[in-house]
């Protein structure tokens, strides 16, 4: 019903009418004028038939493929779909869109398909109602496209309410309980559906005492959220604490092999499904940064994950088990421990030991969502395990939604990386299951793998949703890439600009489009250029992770070091003389990364310790590269700022959006200059090598 109402609205916006044909016709003729069903007083309990006006002509037909009595153009399209892909092959979420004889036809096997078709229609805009459109079959490449909210119910004294959140408080939780603003949650669900996201966790992976209770005595709150998300085909998942049997169940142990513990998980999970029949499953951060886990009981992560998986299995649920496991009490003097190695060391030996409904959730890089990292070697090491790749939409290490940093290009690079060197499979194909013999998942084919893409959400209760209005583009790009990783991030930005700013309705559409592109297109590289150089990572202020502090993490237990001295910088991760991390990659990458001669410039300091005078493939020395990129990066931010100001001055964007973006660009420029000066000064003082161009270094 929700979808039909939305479709009617879409038709109405184009001055058209909708005819909707459900699987089993509820009444003979279902032509409807969109506006008739547009009223907010429509409740889900209202029959849509009540608002359907018989007899009208129609411009849009939406129908389930099981419907009888389809009008002519829809029947033609269906016949062609049957011929091409076969009846029933659109699956739960696929859809077909075409325009024939002046009628736009949207067909799906089920309501979720219609929902996604609707939003595709919205993206097409006028084009959906213009010239004939060929039959276009759409499927998501991965079955699960999930956002993890690092939201707490309580407000944490240091982290705030949303851990690494830069958009205000949680949209789910307020004042120690469920939010009173479920309309906002409903709007969020619609937003998620519009980008193809179909799963969310509603609490932080660091599960604190209050939030642990969501699994048991605060389950009603989760059920309430699930009720709001459900009409938009978004399933709720929960982050759970591995020690729940002790903390919530009063058992003496949480040992995953203990029969009492297994029964506790089974019983608890049964109650979850009694309250939320379409519950998605659990997300677990175990033995990581202080969270409890199977190591505490002498068990492996496979044993831990499989116990939770067994509890979920009868109900069709899944466990997303995070591979982000490392020693955060490292002695910085100990050069043999390498945090980059940790996930592979822990998990690769367990390949083949995880249950079928366990999904190992792997951060895309081996360290921690830095601006530039190689792809995690775990992704190539687990052919017998379902994998999901985790991205960070929230900009913890990429400017915290105060800096413009469009991450679509970074993710696209990760997803199209080929871990075995040949042209295929790609990281995206590993994540969708296609690489390892799950039914082939690619655009236009129905996915069957368990894995997929997961990202840490950047949404909060901020009026612009994401703090920085331009950070919405990251959320948009994540959803669209999770649906189809082959989409071009520049084209996604086009889509987002059209949908967000409706340039055609302004006095100067071209200036609007051009400027937003100018500000956002290369913003990831700009951010990279004024922060930590050549893949070395961190150099952020400890704790907040915002702004520069070159040695902030250098002598800490966190395992994130750059090893700069008077002669050189970088981490030796080679097999020959370093930590051996390069050996975790299959060929050709194990060799490409091993030698500074073949290692890509942008990752040089991730893999090698080199002198400041080392000459890059670009022809520059490392230290001159550092100076040049840092001067250039700050200058480019100044240009981004003045470009945007011209747009704002021309009155082409909403004044509130304009004001917020300007305020953020002011801060970005201040901060970029701070980065430039601290980094350049630091390396000048360490190396004693002056800038070849004699620019000002403090
Ligand atoms: O990047 C780090 C963050 C932590 C986060 C952790 C994780 C939720 O600094 O705040 O904890 O990653 O991914 O678990």
From TrEMBL:
InterPro entries given in the database record: A-glucoronidase_C_sf (IPR037054), GH (IPR017853), Glyco_hydro_67_C (IPR011099), Glyco_hydro_67_cat (IPR011100), Hex-like_dom2 (IPR029018)
Presence of the UniProt keyword Iron-sulfur in the record: no
One of the GO BP terms on file: xylan catabolic process
Pfam families: Glyco_hydro_67C (PF07477), Glyco_hydro_67M (PF07488)
A GO molecular-function descriptor: xylan alpha-1,2-glucuronosidase activity
Regions of compositional bias (Acidic residues) in chain numbering: 37-49
SUPFAM superfamilies: (Trans)glycosidases, beta-N-acetylhexosaminidase-like domain
Domain Glycosyl hydrolase family 67 C-terminal: 466-695
Keywords assigned by UniProt, alphabetized: Hydrolase
Keyword Hydrolase recorded: yes
Regions annotated as coiled coil: none
Boundaries of every Glycosyl hydrolase family 67 catalytic domain copy: 138-465
Domain of life of the organism encoding this protein: Bacteria
A single cellular component GO annotation: extracellular region
Name of this chain's protein: Xylan alpha-(1->2)-glucuronosidase
Organism listed in the record: Catellatospora coxensis
Top-level taxonomy: Bacteria, Bacillati, Actinomycetota, Actinomycetes, Micromonosporales
């Amino acid at each position: 019903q929700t979808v039909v109402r939305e479709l009617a609205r879409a038709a109405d916006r184009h001055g058209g009418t909708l005819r909707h044909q459900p699987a089993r016709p509820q009444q003979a003729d279902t032509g409807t004028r969109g506006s008739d069903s547009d009223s907010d007083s429509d409740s889900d309990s209202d029959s849509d038939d009540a608002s359907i006006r018989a007899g009208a002509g129609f411009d849009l037909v939406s129908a389930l493929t099981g419907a009888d009595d389809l009008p002519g153009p829809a029947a033609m399209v269906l016949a062609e779909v049957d011929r091409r892909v076969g009846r029933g092959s659109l699956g739960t979420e696929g859809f077909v869109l075409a325009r024939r004889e002046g009628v736009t036809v949207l067909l799906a096997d089920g309501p979720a398909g219609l929902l996604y078709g609707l939003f595709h229609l919205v993206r097409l805009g006028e084009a959906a109602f213009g010239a004939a459109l060929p039959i276009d079959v759409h499927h998501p490449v991965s079955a699960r496209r999930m956002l993890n909210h690092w939201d707490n119910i309580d407000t944490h004294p240091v982290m705030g309410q949303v851990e690494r959140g830069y958009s205000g408080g949680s949209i789910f939780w307020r004042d120690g309980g469920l939010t009173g603003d479920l309309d906002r949650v409903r709007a969020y669900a619609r937003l998620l559906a519009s980008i193809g996201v179909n799963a969310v966790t509603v609490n932080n992976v660091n599960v604190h005492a209050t939030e642990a209770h969501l699994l048991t005595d605060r389950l009603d709150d989760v059920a309430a959220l699930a009720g709001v998300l459900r009409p938009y085909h978004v399933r709720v998942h929960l982050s759970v604490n591995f020690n729940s049997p002790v903390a919530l169940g009063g058992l003496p142990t949480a040992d995953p092999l203990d029969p009492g513990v297994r029964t506790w998980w089974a019983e608890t999970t049964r109650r979850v499904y009694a309250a939320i029949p379409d519950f998605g499953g659990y997300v677990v951060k175990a033995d990581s940064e202080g969270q409890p886990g199977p190591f505490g009981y002498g068990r492996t992560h496979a044993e831990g994950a499989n116990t939770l998986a067994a509890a979920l299995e009868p109900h069709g649920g899944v466990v997303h088990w995070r591979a982000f496991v490392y020693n955060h009490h490292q002695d910085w003097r100990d050069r043999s421990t390498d945090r980059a190695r940790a996930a592979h060391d822990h998990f690769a030996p367990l390949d083949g030991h995880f249950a079928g409904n366990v999904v190992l959730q792997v951060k895309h890089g081996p360290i921690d969502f830095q601006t530039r990292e190689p792809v995690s070697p775990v992704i190539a090491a687990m052919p017998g395990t379902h994998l999901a790749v985790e991205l960070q939409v929230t900009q913890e290490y990429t400017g915290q939604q105060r800096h413009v940093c469009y991450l679509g290009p970074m993710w696209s690079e990760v997803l199209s990386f080929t871990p075995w060197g040949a042209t295929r499979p790609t990281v995206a194909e590993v994540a969708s299951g296609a690489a390892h013999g799950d039914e082939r998942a690619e655009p236009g084919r129905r996915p069957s793998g368990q894995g997929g893409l997961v990202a840490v959400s950047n949404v909060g209760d901020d009026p612009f949703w994401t703090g920085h209005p331009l950070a919405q583009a990251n959320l948009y790009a994540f959803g669209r890439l999770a649906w189809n990783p082959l989409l071009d991030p520049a084209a996604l930005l086009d889509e987002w600009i059209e949908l967000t700013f409706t340039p055609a309705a302004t006095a100067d559409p071209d200036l609007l489009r051009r400027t937003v592109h100018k500000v956002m297109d290369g913003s990831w590289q700009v951010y990279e250029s004024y922060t930590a150089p050549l893949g070395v990572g961190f150099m952020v202020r400890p704790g907040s992770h915002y702004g520069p502090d070159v040695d902030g993490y250098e002598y800490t237990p966190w395992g994130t070091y750059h090893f700069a001295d008077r002669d050189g910088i970088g981490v030796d991760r080679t097999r020959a003389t370093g930590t051996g991390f390069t050996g975790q990659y299959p060929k050709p990458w194990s060799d490409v990364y091993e030698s500074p001669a073949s290692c890509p410039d942008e990752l040089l300091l991730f893999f090698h310790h080199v002198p400041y005078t080392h000459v890059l493939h670009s022809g520059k020395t490392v230290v001159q590269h550092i100076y040049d990129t840092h001067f250039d990066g700050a200058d480019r931010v100044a240009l981004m700022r003045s470009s945007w100001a011209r747009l704002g001055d021309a009155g082409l964007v909403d004044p509130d959006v304009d004001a917020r973006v300007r305020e953020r660009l002011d801060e970005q420029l201040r901060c970029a200059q701070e980065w430039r000066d601290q980094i350049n000064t630091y390396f000048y003082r360490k190396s004693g090598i002056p800038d070849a161009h004699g620019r000002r270094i403090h």
